[in-house]
């Protein structure tokens, strides 16, 4: 039996299980039938095992170079190193959908076994919804995006993976993180649908899915940063974000998820915004599918665009089904869910959350509009036009700065409103810090409102966060007599959600400062040099010592040797141009020296192929860009703290878990 | 107001669906340039083969097939037989075939023409100005210029003999009038 | 100096710094080249600007922009030259005053409409604002207690 047979067989066996799971879970929810639920649970487990087997079969086929499979022949070659062979599971459309299916099957298992313990009826309906999604994906991988299509013959060698995808190890991290984030958004969605189906005004779906929502948000966020890092290290243009449709597809659900994570607190504290929160959950999930459709169906031009395939209409149908089902149910239940109270004072935390939500949603709609506008224009008037970074920068930067401002204000305001005297006391130091930040930015030579305002607001937000920690620590010392350090640690263990959230805020500040500085202050110089020549850029002295040809089994490259000194740096960089046999044009492989202050980013733009007598070297000095990756890590850390289960004080009884049966509710 | 918001949301979503459905007809790789229907940008450039210069003005009044190519471009090799056929067929008539070398080293381009036995003239475009003025995206690209000096059509990607001849013949009667 | 004056002064300093940073500055030729090429799409890339793209076409376009700037052409003339050969497609952000300028209205409308909805939600009733704390110690201790209770409880 070949890898192809195993994989194809496993997927075809999993599909009826998923279909069975839908009906078993639905029946269990309707009749409160425990046997049906346990049947659905085992169906989930077996389906998961089968899909994992299929994924492993694909990895096996890739690693053993089984070119009788079309996917392997198109995305692998004998020369491909083992590591890149294995991760080629997600190097192209069919394989990534296969990985997605496996993660989704894992989510189904999680809800089937863990979710149905605490709120059986709700979770059981959610389980049926998730089984339906799994069934859809299993249909995809057995029809339009079948990764196990056999060629009917075995070519001697395959084409090898896309050159850009085998050039950096981050390819191992970036897509799986994003897919994990994407798939986890389906858990809150399934619970929200279940809550709408069952009716009533309980908010329990919300508390049940808090972790999943946070995890999906954090994974998407970290995945986006890793993707930016990959693009910085591989694409060779010295940037990390191009407002490419695939990037937009990833950031849109992240933005709505961010809005949700905040507005959900309003629902928890004040029982308000129910309809809005469900709408955000539906939108977040729908946007993950829309993004997948946009980038996988070939309708928009993108660096990452996968080849056109029949998957487009299926994904579009899926997206329409989600929006119609979610939106229809929401409209149907709208009056039951209407808010009983009102938000109230404009200077209350809930009011700030409201404005913050408006801005996040406006940012999302703008990205959606910008991404789709070329399609709209062409459909309406036949005109071809482009929407790129100048548009997105101009529109999103003001929204981002306004959000940064609210990020400083929101946490300082109490629920229900605040008095003027309190406000003055709380904002004195932050406003002074903002002034210092602005002056420092001006003295450092920044021009233009955006970077100076960024520095002012960054100082403002950072001060408010420090103030919050100081207040928390002082309170604990006063009341529990803890040491300062003990009190600080206790903030995280006792209320990780709040104080972890502030860590996230600090990470965002770090990232935004990095973005503003690297965008405003990058210096670039390009020179054609003979061996031994040198160039000076922003205080760095770059000596070009010569060209070398490097040959590896899967690729051949030409590398320029550069010795860089100055500003306390002493680096040896080797930017190159890499030629893969399956790609016409050479791929630039930048040489990067990362630093806490500057990154030295060098590119071999052109060279004398015959005599190695000259090379055109482009040097970019990019300040603070590494802070962006650090910011991503801090955001991830903060999310982790926020997800920690709060440690209770001794003596507080732990709530006993509910009986593990459907009829118990 | 809330009602208005609800309608606006529904309207946006329906619009989104319509656009997405229509988008299937759209091919992201079909990029139209702005030059078709306008007068052909003039150029005067060194010839690939020798010390002479090639000037578009020198061919005024003729049907011009302007082909952008490069030695590193695989589909160019694919369309070369069609170009050869057209060159042989219209040689010495009121139809000229002109090549423009696109982002290529002159030596590599000369080796390419020698290897394929191409004898029609090609112009060098070392700084890419000719390609930019015609709105070229990537080779091979073929422009049809009428006797009136207006660009009548453009073909993206490898071209075949039938397409070439049809395009030329629709431009020729105009030349006789 | 009272707290209020301090805040006001700091706010003024911030505004002054912002105003100073926004002062009109004459652009050098190379800054103009950068600005124009950041707005031009590199035709062989997918969505990258001429400024960012390392491709040869982008290099040619940049050189052309440089030559035109040196020859004294205005930004508008240079952009129009590229629009003549590539159409509006070559611009990465559509001009405000054009049929495609509609795309600029979207974000403004979204923010305004959303803000209107939010303000309306706030106006429905004004919840009473907590009284100003005259003596900070008592109020603060109550606040601290409440906060610790919250922290432990959440």
Question: How would you portray this structure in words?
Answer:
- The complex is a heterotrimer of chains A (665), B (177) and C (154).
- By secondary structure, chain A is of the alpha+beta class.
- Helix content of chain A is 63%, strand content 11%.
- Chain A has helices spanning 3-31, 34-63, 70-75, 82-87, 93-118, 120-142, 174-184, 186-198, 204-208, 210-234, 245-270, 274-296, 311-337, 349-381, 389-409, 420-443, 449-480, 484-494, 496-521, 625-643, and strands spanning 523-529, 534-537, 540-552, 555-566, 569-573, 576-579, 587-589, 591-593, 598-607, 615-623.
- In chain A, a hairpin with a 2-residue loop joins strand 4 (555-566) and strand 5 (569-573).
- In chain B, the strands form two sheets. Chain B has a five-stranded mixed sheet. Chain B has a two-stranded antiparallel ribbon with strand order 1-2.
- Chain B is built from five helices and seven strands.
- Chain B is elongated and about 75 Å long.
- Chain B has 177 residues and is of the alpha/beta class.
- In chain B, helix 2 packs across helix 5 (161-176).
- Chain C is 60% helix and 0% strand.
- Chain C has helices spanning 3-21, 29-38, 56-70, 75-86, 105-123, 136-153.
- The two termini of chain C are 40 Å apart.
- The model of chain C is unreliable at 125-136 (pLDDT under 50).
- Chain C is elongated.
- Chain B binds chain C through residues 1-2, 5, 8, 31-35, 38, 41, 103, 127-129, 131-138, and chain C through 43-44, 56-57, 60-61, 63-64, 82-89, 113, 116-117, 120.
